Amino acid sequence: MSKHPGGRRGLFLIFCALTALASSPTLAQEKYPSRAITWVVGYPPGGSVDVVTRLVARKLEATLGQPIVVDNKPGATGSLALRYVATQPADGYTLVTVPGPVLTSIPMPQIGKEMSAIAMLAKGSTVLVGPARPDAPKDLKALLADASAHPDKYSYGSSGNGTGQHLTGELIQALTGVTMTHVPYKGGNQAVTDVIGGQIPLAVLGITPVLPHIRSGKLKAYGVSTAARSASLPEVPTLREAGIANFEASQWFVLAARTGLPADRSDRLNEAVAQALKDPEVMKGFENVGMFPEVHSAKQTADYIHTDMRRWADLVKKNKIAID
């Protein structure tokens, strides 16, 4: 008779426990991804954020071998989407595109806190436009001279308070000393309509909504905000070239997830994004909406966002700019 009657039973229980641990996706590494990924966009279909996301998502499907479902959840300057993703498991199956810079006093999940950056998707220009009328200022220098001589004459539209377009307009004023009244819109399309129709004299917007109207001759472009000219508008000077020394402002689009995403999954996604951004179809699609791909590691992406957001927060504080 065995001196350890529970020995075999004990070994069996240990074997069962180890088997359960090995099969648990929370305690042992599983293949990633092993099912469909949801990629949330906080803006309506057809805009820059949506277009950039879908271009990259199509390539990631092929690289990762799983479907990627783009889920548009527009509202509250993208914060509805961020709040949703911040409540989902940090397992890499719910992602979100974070556009920036965006400043607001409304509490919302932020990269570096509730959200973690995975990869930079794209950067792009905003563009200062006005109606292409015979009496319009011929260039940026003439526009700034007229605005300086007539402080109450000019207002400019943007896609909303605290957006990159709004902040770019404020930076123009801070660096030149001119005064312009900000007119926030709920998106860029209505602002474009009002500039063309003469309801407002200027707008600072992303390239996507203004590009066809610049090409058709309905809008006049005074300059793009980035340090280099846009491939979409190679004939349009940068604001720096046109007369505002050291001017530079970029829109950016970042892939993010809820904080706590395992490093190996973040790395897998970052590598897949880097591969997608080198694809000719993606590069051409970005060019069509005024964006350009930029490959960064997750850390480089997070560091860039931190520096850029601090820069804009300092501008808002120094100049007492209303962002809500």
From TrEMBL:
InterPro entries reported in the protein's UniProt record:
BUG, Bug_dom1
Note the Pfam families from the entry: TctC
Q: Where is the signal peptide?
A: 1-28
Q: Please indicate if the UniProt record lists Signal as a keyword.
A: yes
**Mind listing the UniProt keywords for this protein, alphabetically?**
Receptor, Signal
Q: Please report which protein family the annotation says this sequence is part of.
A: Belongs to the UPF0065 (bug) family.
Q: What is the protein name given in its UniProt record?
A: Tripartite-type tricarboxylate transporter receptor subunit TctC
The source organism is Variovorax boronicumulans
